[in-house]
Amino acid sequence: MIPRLGTMRLACMFSSILLFGAAGLLLFISLQDPIELSPQQIPGIKFSIRPQQPQHDSHLRISTEKVTRDSPSGSPRGLQLQAPDQPRPHRKAAGSPLRLRQRRRRLLIKKMPAAGTNRGNNSSETFIQPRPRTMDSRWVSLHQTQQERKRVMREACAKYRASSSRRAVTPRHVSRIFVEDRHRVLYCEVPKAGCSNWKRVLMVLAGLASSTADIQHNTVHYGSALKRLDTFDRQGIVHRLSTYTKMLFVREPFERLVSAFRDKFEHPNSYYHPVFGKAILARYRANASREALRTGSGVQFPEFVQYLLDVHRPVGMDIHWDHVSRLCSPCLIDYDFVGKFESMEDDANFFLRLIHAPGNLTFPRFKDRHSEEARTTSRITHQYFAQLSSLQRQRTYDFYYMDYLMFNYSKPFSDLY
């Protein structure tokens, strides 16, 4: 009886050891599975690019984990891309797919960098280096300018929008982005920052016109020749965000605001006067005339600013004076090229050279509308803002603070804090 009891105890101990060993082996295998922690290298022409790797679920979700890609055949003329080594393929581990996927997603989130983190000399940073025959101070200066603009933008995002690294890109975030498939370009439209001429350039790049001068204003803004990124399905959006060169152009916020006001309220307009003008005059002008309330014409700049700063504004925001940080989501989408309206000619033509645009295509200089009227300049902007009180100027600066910070524009008035 006693030997049989001892034998049973030994059998139980042996079974327990086997069970613990098997459980430990499964745990070790699940922790070693690198499928979702090692993003695949995706080919594509890039200018200092860290593309976004899609998560695989039933909705449009794009991780902000950045991946560097390399495309020797598609790199800009005269440039050499130093790309990291290609990752080796891994074998998928056995086990419950759902439990392993959840475990790997938790590990991935722990390893995910915050949006805007300065990557320094990390190997994932693709560096564009001109060949000796094309090395000149102007090219180097333009490249360094791009690096600095993106650094400032990333730091602003890291400081104020750190939670963006965990957010998902939705069709709403890409609704202002236009697609040009031939040269693999995504352009985020910022109104009053050269957007009309940029859309003309995209149409020429796409082969829809032979010259930017041949494209009329209504064709640019009311035609359907150019597709927006949100018109594609989930796979199409993910693919283009991951492999295309993403760029946007910005403008000094006060100057952009005055330009929008002059265009929409100081000239006849069949949309902005009845929709915005009538609401603004009814709310902010004491003893407004019946004619003004009927047509919505004659809005003054201080009245327009009152509307802009009113948290209970009688009519919604408009893309012509909305924040760039809202229009293009630069803390969520890692733009590869950031141009400025103030240096439009140099920046635009530098970008066209990078994407292998035809040699005879340059950015157009003509004014899209009201060509007889002077462009909005810093001097004109100051004249309009002189009509405001110091408190209104401060509140307007606060309204556009993120745009000033992200794109490194200085304070336009000395009394601003």
Automatic annotation (TrEMBL):
Q: Name one GO biological process term.
A: carbohydrate biosynthetic process
Q: Single GO molecular-function term?
A: dermatan 4-sulfotransferase activity
Q: Keyword Cell membrane on this protein?
A: no
Q: What is its EC number?
A: 2.8.2.-
Which superkingdom, per the lineage?
Eukaryota
Q: Where is this region: Disordered?
A: 48-102
Q: Where in the cell is it found?
A: Golgi apparatus membrane
Task: Give the record's keywords alphabetically.
Answer: Carbohydrate metabolism, Glycoprotein, Golgi apparatus, Membrane, Signal-anchor, Transferase, Transmembrane, Transmembrane helix
Spans of biased composition, class Basic and acidic residues? 56-69
Please give the chief subcellular localization of this protein: Golgi
The membrane-topology field of this record reads: Single-pass type II membrane protein
Q: Would the keyword Membrane turn up in this protein's UniProt record?
A: yes
Q: Which Pfam families match?
A: Sulfotransfer_2 (PF03567)
The terms describing its cellular component in GO are: Golgi membrane
- What does the sequence similarity comment in the record state about its family? Belongs to the sulfotransferase 2 family.
Q: What's the protein name?
A: Carbohydrate sulfotransferase
| Lineage, highest ranks first | Eukaryota, Metazoa, Chordata, Craniata, Vertebrata
